[in-house]
């Protein structure tokens, strides 16, 4: 169950980042990556434990 | 147009075919080697008489009470595996073995009717407890092993046994060390003990009935994926904008700035690869 969930979630996040034309600083790539990982993890874990995407 | 048709150029011929007409067989397929590996792992653990029959079907599973293992049909064909990878998320070798060991746990349980014994019920709970797709796991509970993602052992007593069996069966899982001091250890010890007792014994149920087999799947591949999409978890309605703007709060005027989501080196593209390889 989780792999499709995470993949779908990341796809939706990525699509929205593109639509919003958001930008990343190359020298802060690891920082961006850590933040987006934590964000997606919280969404996914909330879904798994509470049955819905409760946003942090 | 549905995504299934829109983005699957090169798969049109497969998508329009009924699954039963694809001529899929487990024997000789890429996934057969994994089944053989499962049998070898059982042998190495001293289980010599139990070899669950495996068959191709629509998803991973073991029909309730039946000592047989259903394997997703797309794993039997490289082309279908590619399609699955694009549509959903294809299991790698490690995950295929994780699922096989889990399903072997169910099959072992049913083959020897362990779920009817008082000891099984005492450790894992009532086998007849209603099965719910949604469950609320306790992420840090030490009363359950962790194998498949999502704290799957907490879903149902039957899943708890299957997960415990899978951990026990996994080569080099070091379960004695990893689960030392955990409540789950009693369950692992039970599996270890029962496998020792029954390892050389003929199963009470040697054969089982399958649910739908690949030869009975009348829907086309396209219909199968359309149905999967309909059952997908609704993530499209998430209000992400504020959080994403906070995370990627970067001025366009700064040097060394690039779009966050385009190109193969984008942060989120990288994330998909990394995230999906870690559990």
- Binned, the helix content of chain A reads over 70%
- How many DSSP H or I helices of chain A? 2
Estimated share of beta-strand residues of chain B? under 5%
Question: What is the mean predicted local confidence, pLDDT of chain A?
Answer: 81
Helix content of chain B: 40-55%
What is the residue-averaged pLDDT of chain B? 87
Q: What structural class do the secondary elements of chain B suggest? A: mainly alpha
Class of secondary structure makeup of chain A: mainly alpha
| Beta-strand content estimate of chain A | 5-15%
Distance separating the two termini of chain B: 34 Å
Anisotropy-based shape of chain A: globular
Most strands sheet of chain B: 2 strands, parallel
Radius of gyration of chain B: 22 Å
**Assembly status:** heterodimer
> Total number of β-strand segments of chain A?
1
The most extensive contact between chains is: A-B, 45 and 45 residues
User: What's the number of extended β-strand segments of chain B?
Assistant: 3
* Major sheet: arrangement of strands of chain B: 1-2
Following the backbone from N to C, one meets helices and strands of chain A in this order, namely HEH
